[in-house]
Amino acid sequence: MTPCDAKLPDTLRYGLAILSILLCLSGCRTSLPVGETYEPCVLVTKEEASAAMNEPVRDAVAHDFYANVARDKNEIGSLVEKGVSWVKRCVYNGLQENTTGDFMEIAVYQFENQKQAMSFYEDQTKGPAVRKDLGENLPALKGLCDRSAQFGGPLSSSSGDYVLKGDLVLYIGVVPGLPSHSEALWGAAEHVLKQAVVRLK
To answer: What whole-number distance in Å separates Cα of residue 128 and Cα of residue 12?
Structure first.
């Protein structure tokens, strides 16, 4: 025991030790928790969305919808019929005022089984906006998921990606508030896509 310790009552020294641990837990951990997650606002953080869109964004707006909750069926009723168990959404809005703002949306769809997830994925990726030249998997995601596809272009009203991973479907999309923003925001989803897929449980 040091001379300094000897001057402190045991209860005070114990309290200080606990306080130091709590401070470290709350202030020292700046990285994401270790492990995988379903939460879209963790798959893509506010800072990552801002960097990808090259503009500041507001705090996340998150919504969860569950097939077994009556009030949620108004929102996801058509998806429940396709086998969805729950949907988690996260939106980061740009700071534009007095006009329609840019935003990034991240959504995770959990299905009852992989077959239903595949069916939903194929429905979402069969339109003309999907880039067929990239094949069934984006090169950056090789080995990280079952299927992936990119949609939209520099002049599109929206752009982004769909990913199939087991019984989950991940969507990351960016929508410009004004047509003049389309080109600048094109490809923003790809900046956060790989890390999101790695984090996806």
So the answer is: 68
How confident is the model at residue 29, as a pLDDT?
A: 31
Cα–Cα distances in Å, from 73 out to 47, 58, 79, 87, 114? 32, 28, 9, 11, 22
Structure tokens belonging to residue 117: 């997830």
Confidence band, pLDDT 50/70/90 cuts, at residue 155:
confident
Helix, coil or strand: residue 53: helix
Cα separation of 146 and 110, whole Å?
A: 15
The domain locations on the chain are 1-30, 33-199
CATH number at 33-199: 3.40.1000
- CA atoms of 160 and 191, how far apart (whole Å): 10
pTM of the model: 0.79
The sign one gets for the Cα dihedral 80, 84, 86, 92 is negative
What is the tens place of the pLDDT at every residue in 10-56? 554 444 444 444 333 333 333 333 346 899 999 999 999 999 999 99
Tell me if 81 sits within 8 A of 133, measured CB to CB.
no
